[in-house]
Design a protein that fits this description.
Number of helices: 17
CATH architecture of the largest domain: Up-down Bundle
Helix content: over 70%
Number of domains: 2
Radius of gyration: 22 Å
Number of strands: 0
Largest sheet: none
CATH superfamily of the largest domain: MFS general substrate transporter like domains
Order of helices and strands: HHHHHHHHHHHHHHHHH
Length: 442
């Protein structure tokens, strides 16, 4: 964050002083939010590893698992907007504390389910508990950073999910291998307990660490608060008109982008929840090996995110930078079936396919702000997120049903490959480059 930033100020000295203020804000807030999002990702994904052991104990079928994985997003979508509205009323500190403590409690409680139906209920309430976390943080960042800095800050925040993906597999494998029997709990039960407690602790810590807005920050001087307020006010510019919900809902661009996101999210979400099962289908049984192999796509996606974003910014091109990785992902998933029986080739296809889907999804979020006016972006992005979030419900149920009916995940990944192709084509055909160029200056 040391490079020159286009924050409008009145003098070179004030510009330097303002950058120092933002550096102080970054060091105060970003490590906490980064860690929180990392834990959020881990507590979503741990059920995919727990499934490998809990299926026998609670008579969990692949179809029921698919419903459980998907119903999380139903709870999340239903309470996402109310949570953000409540955040604006009571503040980000109280909201984030409430969300983190509740999702930690639900994660720990999941360790004690005894039937598939109880797991489905637990996953629904986990979605309810987590609802509003991601959009809440995105909204919270607007209180502290102007548009000139916000894109990079958000990008760093999003990388927490990829790093958590790298860590979650080996961590789950280690916990389930070495802590089996701890306090009389089975390996999958220990996983939920051990990974749920940190969220609760970090949530309580957040109550004392976070502040709602710059004016409340005791760790900033009066001069620093004023500089921050000035930079934020200037960064908002003249965008004073507020788009209504009705205006946003009548904008066809919102639905096109939502459908594209739906297709892309079907791919990245499916691999996140079914990767351990897929790897075991390759003939790998050791939990630590499964965990290590499951981390490879996230590591590759982290590198891909950086390279894609750098190339996209350099060329000021978004559509093909999203579409090409999506098509690569589709090709890899479609080839998984023919490659079965060849372990190394299957792992390579899974890694490249999953990494491409995950990396393209992060770059997708550069498109909605360019399609919408700044005043419409907040509501529009929420609507796009809700449309795409339905993929989390539908894709998991479909994949689980196909796996139960055929005994194989390969047909399910063929379906996901087709959906990814539809998403790439829709992006290239229905969102012309000129629509993005119109707002390239924002």
């Amino acid at each position: 964050m040391n490079d020159a930033v286009a924050i409008p100020v009145t003098s070179d000295a004030e510009a330097l002083e303002t950058r120092e203020v933002f550096r102080k804000v970054i060091l105060r807030l970003l490590p906490y939010l980064f860690l929180a999002y990392g834990l959020n990702t881990i507590d979503r994904l741990n059920v995919s590893f727990a499934k490998l052991r809990m299926a026998e104990d609670i008579a969990l079928t692949d179809a029921a698992y698919g419903i459980g994985a998907g119903i999380f997003y139903l709870g999340y979508i239903l309470f996402e907007v109310p949570s953000n509205m409540y955040l604006q009323r009571i503040g980000a500190r109280a909201t984030l504390t409430r969300i983190m403590v509740l999702w930690g409690l639900v994660t720990v409680a999941t360790a004690f389910v005894t039937t598939a139906n109880q797991l489905i209920v637990a996953r629904f309430f986990l979605g309810v508990a987590e609802a509003g976390f991601f959009p809440g943080v995105i909204l919270y960042l607007t209180y502290w950073f102007p548009p000139a800095l916000r894109a990079r800050i958000t990008a760093v925040f999003l990388m927490a999910a990829m790093i958590a993906g790298v860590v979650s597999g080996p961590l789950a494998g280690w916990i389930m291998t070495h802590l089996h029997g701890w306090m009389g709990l089975r390996d999958w039960q220990v996983l939920f307990v051990v990974e749920g407690i940190p969220a609760m602790l970090l949530g309580v810590f957040g109550w004392f660490w976070l502040v709602d807005k710059p004016a409340d920050a005791r760790w900033l001087t009066a001069r620093q608060k004023q500089l921050l307020t000035n930079a934020l006010a200037q960064g908002r510019g003249a965008d004073t008109a507020k788009a209504t919900l009705g205006e946003v809902l009548r904008n066809p661009r919102v639905y096109i982008a939502g459908l594209v996101f739906f297709c892309l999210y079907s791919g990245s979400n499916t691999v996140s929840y079914w990767m351990p099962t897929l790897i075991r289908g390759f003939g790998v049984d050791d939990l630590k090996v499964i965990g290590s192999l499951a981390s490879l796509p996230y590591l590759m996606a982290l590198i891909g995110m950086y390279l894609l974003a750098r190339s996209s910014d350099k060329r000021l091109e978004r559509r093909w930078h999203v579409a090409v990785p999506v098509l690569v992902s589709a090709a890899c998933f479609a080839m998984l079936g023919p490659a079965q029986g060849h372990l190394a080739f299957s792992v390579a296809l899974m890694t490249v396919g999953a990494a491409s889907a995950l990396a393209s999804l992060s770059l997708f979020w550069t498109i909605p702000p360019a399609l919408l006016t700044p005043s419409a972006a907040a509501v529009g992005i929420a609507v796009i997120s809700c449309i795409g979030g339905m993929a989390g419900v539908i894709s998991q149920v479909v994949v689980g049903a196909i796996k139960s009916a055929t005994g194989s995940l390969y047909l399910a990944f063929d379906v996901i490959a087709a959906v990814l192709v539809v998403g790439a084509v829709l992006l290239l055909v229905a969102i012309p480059a000129r629509q993005l160029q119109e707002r390239s200056g924002h």
